[in-house]
Structure formats: C-alpha cells, structure tokens
Records
---
Amino acid sequence: MRKKFIAGNWKMHKGGKEAIEIAKNVKEGIQDDKVDVMIAPPFTAIPDVGRTLEGGFVKLGAQNMHFEEQGAFTGEISPFFLLDFGVKFVILGHSERRKIFGEVDDLIAKKTAAALTFNLTPIVCVGETLSEREEGKTFDVIERELNTIIPLIDKKKIVFAYEPIWAIGTGKVATPETAVEVHKFIRGKLGDIGQDIRILYGGSVKPENAESLLKEEEIDGALVGGASLNPESFLSIISTARSV
Ligand code: PEP
C-alpha cells in the first residue's frame, strides 16, 4: 500500500519571516505521519524553514539542484549543500525548469542520478502541453520524459509527479479520469516496481478539488503550487489525503 504524499512547491515565493510563519503553521497542523508531507521553499529560505520544521513531521524539499558536488557552476546549488540543511526531497524536471530554463531530459536524468547518489529523493515531473494533448501526443511526450529516468530507478526512491502543463497555475485541473489514465500509463512503463512507486498529480490542486483526485487509488498524492502558500489551504488538502 502506497502512503499518500502531499508536497508543496513554493516556487519563487516567500522568504524571511513570512516563510518561517507558513512553515510553522504547517508544522503545527501536522501531528502524525499518516500522510507524508513536504514543503519546498526557495533556496534562500531553506535554512530558516529547515530549522522551523525540526522535530515535526513535515519534510524539507528543494525545487532544483545541480548534478555535481562542487565546481565552477556559477549560480548553482549542489546536492551536497542541500544535505547540510536537512533537505530530503528535490523536485526535478518541473515544467517551468524545462520551458523557461531549457532543461532537457538528459540533464534531468543527470540530476536524478545525483540526487539518488546523495540520498535525496527526487520528485521527477512529467507532463504534456495543451497543444501536445490536443495533437494526441500526451503518451509519447511522457514516455520520452520517462525513458532517461527509468534506468535510474532505485527501489522505491523515486517519486513521479504527473503535471499536465496546461493545468499548472491555470486553475484548470485535470479530471480524475484524465489523471488516472496517465498515472496508469506511467506505472505500466515502470514495470514490476511501479506498484511501489508513488505518482503524484500536480496542476491547480485546491481544497475544492482535492478529494475527487486523491480518492483515486492510482493518485498517490499531490504536488501543490499556489495552494501550498496558504497554510489553511495546504492543511485542508493534507486533511483530505488523510481521510480518503
Ligand atoms: C506546481 O508548481 O507544480 C503546480 C502544480 O502549481 P499549481 O498547483 O499552482 O498549479
């Protein structure tokens, strides 16, 4: 049985006291580990948020990282640095990184391999654009994105997130049927180990639509952007994950 997992991606939002305040509220709202919970603040807030989460059930994540331990990579953050602050998860291949920063499948695979080497759990995002969906290319795109990652799968350590790009930050959530269809496709590609690997759905998950998605056995949790910035909304999604 796969445990539900709710992960918050703060993107380039929140720092200083505001970040600490949100983390504190989320920490106080989670009193057991019935559901796994992670928040990924911007890099600069990781030390404060990490300290705030200490002693609680909420895990710390990062939104990206480089694949080398150190070197001449101006502006980059090494997996090794993340470990210093208690980071356990790292989001890789988010569509914003692919589209805005030109990250390609091979780079994402290198980062995934590095995360596993450093004992960080990668949350690898895959998903199609609206035009790819309309042209009937959804499964081809996802298969291509999975191809470089599948050989790296190390027992249960990778988490996948199906994030249809047309649903991210748009308020247009995928229907449970659409999400389940793609989750089944991804699980099928993972082979036997697929039964043990968590596949989250991401894209406009809010308290109002969380139940319809999370009650699906195929949907092992959610990667939440906008709604994770509001502790009340984020805790409400977590509470739904506990009850389905
Ligand atoms: C995300 O950033 O991964 C995401 C799913 O964002 P939102 O929930 O805001 O659509």
Note: The chain has a mean pLDDT of 96.
---
Amino acid sequence: MSGGVGTSQRPLRVAIVGAGPSGFYAADALLRSDKVTVDMFDRLPVPFGLVRYGVAPDHAKIKNVTKVYEKIAEKGNFSFLGNVAVGRDISIAELRRFYDAVLFAYGAETDRTLGIPGEDLSGSHTATEFVAWYNGHPDYRERHFNLSQKAAVVIGQGNVAVDVCRILCKTVDELKHTDIAQHALEALAKSRIEEVHMIGRRGPAQAAFTPVEIREFGELADCDPVVNPKDLEINEASRLELDDPKNARARKNFETIQQFAALGQSKKRKKFFIHFCKSPVALGGRGSVEEVILEKNQLAGEAGHQKARGTGEKETLLCGLFFRSVGYRGIPMEGVPFDEEGGTIPNKEGRVMDKGQVLPGIYAAGWIKRGPSGVIGTNKPDSEETVKNILEDAGELTPCAQPDTQALIGLLKGKNIKVVRFADWKRIDAEEIRRGQANGKPREKIISVTEMLSFC
Ligand code: NAP
C-alpha cells in the first residue's frame, strides 16, 4: 500500500456489506494488515448470514465455523454495524463519504424460478423461503406451509433440496434438540406428510448433492429412501463420468443410490422418493397445488456436459406442497452494476466492472461475486482473491472525505436507525442460548427484530 491511505496514521477504511461467511473471510484477510480498518454492515441486527439462516438446524457442526468469525470480530480494527440496510438506510454515495473501499458480500437472497404454468399457485414455494422459515429468519416467520398434505415435491437435487427433504422426512424427536425455530418445530410436529419426492432433471451420476448429505437418508428414524432400480441403467456417457478419477463425489453418490435401490420393503411411515431424469412442466390445482406434471428426460451430449432433453412422455404426481430448489439468485443493490442473467455484480476477480471498466473502490466477494455455488469454505479463497486486489489498488484509491465511523453512526442516528454493535449481538446471543437451554436446544433464536433490538 502507498499514497494517502493505508498508513498507520490513516489506515485504509473498508466497508464490508454483508456479515456472512464471505464478508468474514474478507475481513480476516484485510485485518492481517494493521493499516486497515473494517466496518461490517448487515441489514439484520445479528451476524453470520447463511450460517445462521441457511445451514440446516440438524447440521450443528457446520455452524461451529461462527467461532472463527467471532475471533475475527474481536480484532481491534473491526466493527460490526448491524441493523443497517445499505442501499435503503444509507446510499452507496453516502457510504463512500466514509470509506475508501466498499466490498459487497451480501450473498444471494432470492431464488431462481422454473417459469412453468401454475408456479404461482398457493402451496408452491421456494426452498429458500422454507429454509429461512425453519431457521427463524425474521422476514419469514409469518410464512405458512401446508403440512397437512400427504405428499410434498421438491424440484432440484442440490444440497438445499436435500436439506428441505430431510427436514420434511425427520421426526420431531430428530429435530427437537437442534436450533430449529420453535414455530417450525410445532408446525412439523403436526405434519401429515408421508411422501417426499425429490426430482432431478438429470441422472444419478449428475446429481448436485454431496455424498455425506445423501447418505443421511439411509439412517432416518421413520423414513426410508426409495429409488427405482431402472434409474440405475445409465448411458455410456454417464458411465464415463463415473469412471473419471476426478469424479469421486459422483461415484460415491451413485453407490449410495444403488444401496437405496436395493433396500427391501420397510415398515417406516415416511418414504423419500428420489426421481431422476424428470422435469416439471406444469403445476395443476384449483386455487392451490394438487399435482405436478413431470416430463421424462433423456440425457444428451458428451460426458461431463450432458443436458436433459424432454422426451414428450409425461406423468402426473399428486402433491399438495411443492418447492422449487433450483439455485439461489442475487438481487441488485441500488447504485451498483448488476448482471441480470447471472444474478451477480459484474466483476473481474472481485473488482466491480461497469460496461467493461473497473469501478475504482468498489468490490465484490462470495455468492454476489461468483454466483451461488460451493460450500462455506469455498468463500475463503474467493474473498482472499478480492482482498488481494483491494490491497493492490489501495495506493490509487481516492481517500474518502470523512474517515470517521462515529460520524457515520451519527448520520444513521439522525435517520432513526439504531446501529447494533458486536457487543449488542453478544447479548442477543447469550439470551438465545439461555432460552435454548430451557428447551434442551443449543439456542432458541429470537425471530423478531424489535425483540432483538430490546437487548441492544
Ligand atoms: P445447486 O447445488 O446448484 O443445485 C441446483 C439443483 O437444481 C441441481 O440439481 C440442478 O440440476 C437443478 N436445477 C437447476 N435448474 C433447474 C431447472 N430449470 N429444472 C430442474 N432442475 C434444475 O444449488 P443449491 O442446492 O441451491 O445449493 C447452493 C450451494 O450451496 C451449493 O454449492 C451447495 O452444495 C451448497 N450447500 C451446501 C450444503 C452442505 O454442505 N450441507 C447445504 C446447502 C447448500 P442440474 O445439475 O441439472 O443443473
């Protein structure tokens, strides 16, 4: 670093927008220098983004990564500014008055649609809504999912689809000691769902889920996986894919699917059906979803690049609850370029681009940079790439006019925004853990923002 900013007298001031994994990994990489200060914003009063509101409640180990983020937050040059919606409570132009660089790491908040008739019927939902609901996200606590139905269909075979299916397939006893939101646990306790159908448009060699996640369905208390042995008759290109030494994940998935297909009759109440090579073409129902029309696909193309092609052969699957789980999608931020097709901020290795030109001082990391792919750890190298470029550019950046976080907090106060600091979050955290202990849960999340703010 050189020039006016990035010195002991005048550290480089970076605003990170989004307190999820990519934001924290970026903060960690930036704070390896003592000539940088980081202020991290989140629209919610609580940090950790998708680790708190995306990771399934029964996957507690994955959430342990927040301990790493807590350590980063304890660093001297780091501040958390929660309950501040950048783009709404403060514009990008205002933010730039206080920071030399702004890094967007706000993830992918919405989802992709299927674009089929009937998708808007009541009873048809996005997986992201359901995930946010059972994880106690304040924006989703009022959502209603009709669990009095016999059959639920989930479109897609990524890990999000798997999470949704597993939560629907588990018993309340399997969930009650997790940090699942109490409203969701109570609704699931009354669930009458007996059949969960997970539909993949391609075959068992192409499924996007990971081996550990799919194996779990062989170990559920009151649900058995069901696979049609005919689905194991794969084409030559798929065989080549499975034989590829670099494709261990697909091989392991295939082995698990084979084991599921070989299972005999079971006495368990629920069934988890895994369908392959089928695409939804329409949803039907009077007012709410009653059925989904599926078209059988065949695979075409070379090994590693096979695509699903409709054969014209259709089947009807009765279902009263329908989820699409075909990928998250980023949303635009007022005043920042956006690639509508990809649902990302256009960038070159994290430097934000506008019409082919680098926008100085504006960066992106995580899902809003590369799209919704990879596991939590994937964000570490991704954020480090962006940070490397921020530090490389630092000497050339125009220093901000008002390098003063207190002045920014004053501005927000003037707009009636209560800024939540990390110490405030620790009070919310302590209260959630206390409430959880009473119910034998690791925590009972507070789901109202107003209530969260009462602890700050
Ligand atoms: P994903 O892994 O990209 O899976 C998307 C799924 O949707 C694929 O099966 C895809 O099929 C299918 N799909 C896409 N468009 C479709 C269409 N028009 N019709 C039918 N199917 C369609 O996305 P995700 O499940 O949302 O997960 C996002 C990321 O988070 C992934 O990297 C995932 O591994 C990660 N994640 C990890 C965990 C965990 O580690 N436990 C948990 C949750 C999420 P094709 O393959 O044919 O495109």
Note: The chain has two domains: 12-109+330-420, 111-327.
---
Amino acid sequence: MQVQEFSDLPIREDVLRGIRDLGFKKPSPIQAQSIIPLLEGRDVIGQAQTGTGKTAAFGIPMVQSIDLLLRRPQGLVLAPTRELAIQIADHIYKISRYTGIKVTAIYGGEKINKQIRKLKSGTHIVVGTPGRIIDHLERGTLRLRDVHMVVLDEADRMLDMGFIKDINKILDRIPKHKQTSLFSATMDKNIWKICDTYM
Ligand code: AMP
C-alpha cells in the first residue's frame, strides 16, 4: 500500500489528533514502512538515524497497543542516555495526549523516590536507560510482566556504552510472547545477535 497520509494508516482518531497537534503532515519513510507491521504485532528491525522520525514510528503503534484500564507498564522503550529517554517519553506523551495514557521516563541522575512515586501511581509506558531500569527491577518498584511491546532504541549506542548485560537481564524478565523491535543507526554482529536471541 502506498502511504500518503497518516489517515491512510489504521491509526485511531484520538492518536491522529495528537499527531496533528505535533504539526506532522505526512508520515516519514520509516513511519510509512514500520507503523503497519508494528500495529500487526510483528517484530521490526529499523536501520535509521535520528531525525528520521523513528520515535513516532514505534511510538504510535505502542500508544495504540495499550489497554488504558490496565494501569501497569505494557510498553517499554530502552534508550542509551537520559536525554534521549526524556525526549522519547515527551514525544510519546504528546502523541498520546488525547488517549489518557501515562508515560514515565526512568533514568539515572534523578531521585529514585520521585520515579518510584510515578511508577506507583500507575503508568502504561516506561522509557528508560538500562541501568536505572535494572535498579527499579531489583528494588521491586518496576514489574515487567504485563509488558507486551519492547523497543530498543539506538541499540548500537547502547552496546557501545556497555549495556549489553543489562539489556539481556531486562529482556529475560519480560514475557516470552512479547513484541520486540530494534532501531539502530548501524547494524553489526552484536546487534544481529540480540535480534537472533529475542526477536
Ligand atoms: P526522531 O527521528 O524521532 O528523533 O524525530 C526527529 C524530528 O522529526 C522530531 O523533531 C520530530 O518531531 C519530527 N518528526 C517526526 N515525524 C515527523 C513527520 N511525520 N512530519 C514532520 N516532522 C516529524
């Protein structure tokens, strides 16, 4: 299918409103290619740089996959840095503005108690850096058993920063039938290994 407009895609009206508010007129190529397979529940590997619109490419399907009444984390995005985690969470929040979905960023350097309060109040999507996610898992303040969609964003940078052990530890705590996607500017054998193991 040739995708011209966001309304050509099976995107809900409340999500389309959020996209319109962001000022997006047409889907970028990565959005046109990824949104349908992700909405269908398939695992997607996206080789894409920042600036291509990849956040909305996975953010839109993630928002649309959430069961609002289940106030537990159902979508998880792993990102290499605190700046990126904040930026992704903000972008997904804006997409989901009219849906009632709650998005929480979890990263090192912010007081853990503040994050614990946010997690306790019920959040649907968690965006975080691997180290701090592990910290919450070990404290029992974050449970991933209801997560059905995981995205590894900027996977090459996460591996460069030495997060591979943390990533494996996190992915091993998520139900097996989850949908897993990976976005990376470059692909090498270590990235393909993650894809082989988890996708
Ligand atoms: P990203 O690659 O996800 O970091 O997005 C890069 C920039 O492009 C961000 O400022 C987005 O808000 C913007 N953007 C993403 N998708 C679109 C679109 N379909 N139309 C216009 N701008 C977009």
Note: Strands lie at 45-47, 75-78, 103-106, 125-128, 149-152, 179-184.
